[in-house]
Amino acid sequence: MDYSRSLHEVSDLENGHVLLKPSTKEGFNGSRSLQNVSSSIMRKKSDPVLVSSARFQMLRQFFANLQQVILGTKMAVLFPAIPLAIAADFYKFGRPWLFALSLLGLAPLAERVSFLTEQIAYYTGPTVGGLLNATCGNATELIIAFFALYQNKIHVLKYSLLGSILSNLLLVLGTSLLCGGLANLKKEQRYDRKQADVNSLLLLLGLLCHMLPLMFRYAIGEGPDTFYCTLELSRASSIVMLLAYVAYIFFQLKTHRQLFESQEEGKEEEEEEKAVIGFWSAFSWLIGMTMIIALLSEYVVGTIEAASDSWGISVSFISIILLPIVGNAAEHAGSIIFAFKNKLDISLGVALGSATQISMFVVPLCVVVGWIMHVHMDLDFSLLETGSLAFTIIITAFTLQDGTSHYMKGVVLFLCYIVIAACFWVHKIPQNQITIGKPFTGVFAA
């Protein structure tokens, strides 16, 4: 009987049931029982079954995060383009193929970076989250710009930044107003003009900083002195633009946050208030995807001329039209979805906010970084490019001046984008591809 009871006590201890008795017939005391309990607990913690269970739990958590991050988007079908692009570079495939695969791989990465920054914002709060979104919202464009700057491809850099602004203001905003107007024909579509006015003012300030170097060059005339004066003017203007953008962030997140509260309320209604993945998981995924974006961006910048020659498409069209469409995939999809649900404040915040970030933050930052790297990056985007930017900003400001929307406004903005795309399609077209019966005369004759 005593032996059987001892077996039961040992079984209870190993199952986690602690039985403390002051004394027994066998001479066990309380201190000895505590030592046995302690050793039993230590054995339980180091149990291989528990270690295996913890590893299984971590593995299951990893696959859950993998499902949310990789498979949680409809653009997941484009993820295989990433390893194919790396393989194309490793096995020295054709450079146009490398460019095309890299371009396709950047689209889902840009969308997932936006998703991850939103997840991190749940933990950091609105202030840090807003700054994080401002920094990472256009991560693809920023990384492509830095690689173009590092490789001294200033024309690709200027084209891609200009194309991002045009894409947000005309394509993203235009299709959002068009789809929202068609989906809500029987509803009055209204939005708060105040935040649209603030973004329009910043865009006009950026336009002034772009036009001054161009007008200065035409007023003074070509020459080495003019070039360096234009460069110095661009650097001074870039510092002013960065100060204006810092003031805009402070204005948006601190002093006049009530102007943007409707935008945040709409997001809270649309999305769950809790994050679907943890903070460190989201942060780790964000770092990993940013590194992959950097790799693919290097491929894109290094092969854009080869793709242009192979496809017979000008570098200006690829940089101004194709690259921004890929980089703005996340903004484009999100803005249209909110417009369908008649939440135009959010759609305007996405499109105008992204354009403002590029114009007032990314562009002057590239000028300052080029200044540090001794690269002559300025704000003179040439006459055709600056004129397209000017008319885009003016048309957008006029479109948003009355606080109401209908599908016709979206039609006009979208058609403006088509016209600009056609302009850069024929811009700098190779002479041997022009086949007409009569001798060619005009601006493209040279």
UniProtKB/TrEMBL annotation:
Pfam families for this protein:
Na_Ca_ex (PF01699)
Query: What GO cellular component is one of the record's annotations?
Result: plant-type vacuole membrane
Q: Secretion signal: which residues? A: none
Q: Give one GO molecular function term.
A: calcium:proton antiporter activity
Please list the coiled coil stretches: none
Membrane-crossing ranges are: 69-91, 97-116, 128-149, 161-185, 197-216, 236-254, 275-296, 311-330, 350-373, 379-400, 407-427
Which GO biological-process labels does this protein carry?
calcium ion transmembrane transport; intracellular calcium ion homeostasis; intracellular manganese ion homeostasis; intracellular zinc ion homeostasis; lithium ion transport; phosphate ion homeostasis; regulation of stomatal movement
Q: Where is the Sodium/calcium exchanger membrane region domain?
A: 97-253, 282-425
Q: Which UniProt key words apply to this protein? A: Antiport, Calcium, Calcium transport, Ion transport, Membrane, Transmembrane, Transmembrane helix, Transport, Vacuole
Among Gene3D superfamilies, the record links this protein to: NCX, central ion-binding region
Q: How does it sit in the membrane?
A: Multi-pass membrane protein
Its localization reads: Vacuole membrane
Q: What is the role of this chain? A: Vacuolar cation/proton exchanger (CAX). Translocates Ca(2+) and other metal ions into vacuoles using the proton gradient formed by H(+)-ATPase and H(+)-pyrophosphatase.
> What protein family does this chain belong to?
Belongs to the Ca(2+):cation antiporter (CaCA) (TC 2.A.19) family. Cation/proton exchanger (CAX) subfamily.
Its protein name is: Vacuolar cation/proton exchanger
| Biological source species | Manihot esculenta
The top of its lineage is: Eukaryota, Viridiplantae, Streptophyta, Embryophyta, Tracheophyta
